[in-house]
Amino acid sequence: MPEVTLAWGSLPDTDELDDHLDNHLVDDQVAPSNVDLGQPYVTVDTTEDLDRILHAIHLEAAQRDLPQQVDIWAGSWPPPHDQAQEPPDPMLQVLVGHPDRGSVLWLGPTDCWVAVEPTLPPPAQPLLYDRGGQGDELPPDYARLQPATVTDVLHTFLTNGQRSDRVTWIAI
After folding, report:
1. Which partner for 145 in 61, 102, 116, 170 could form a disulfide, CB atoms 3.0-4.6 Å apart?
2. By the 8 A CB rule, do 69 and 8 touch?
3. pTM, full prediction
């Protein structure tokens, strides 16, 4: 199975984050000891490790009452991101940590897509979330996934590097 790298948010104390994740992960080998410029990141190669990291991020976001953006790409392209270097293709931006909603954006070099569950209407208002340590608002039309569906989409990406066919992808 290929590997993916996840990077998210910023917390002032790296040791606190490592301790928090160690307390919530069954296998401490997936705890992100890699931190650069305050942004933790980790590379995983199993759905179980991916689930553990997502669960830990979800718990942290729930404690702060603020969903978290997580950037995900195939392979390892660790921070710091050289602005002159081409970004990974594709890169996913995922929203986790909201009790009822989530989001997956598929960002390619020439096209971008948002995953939706067509039967799930958009929320009434934008969702406030942590975007790399800064607050931002996610448009309602981008928040049309349930948290379990976000995980399912990420399992597909980890397994085969493709977009899941269990959701509808809308060009943005």
Report:
1. 102
2. yes
3. 0.82
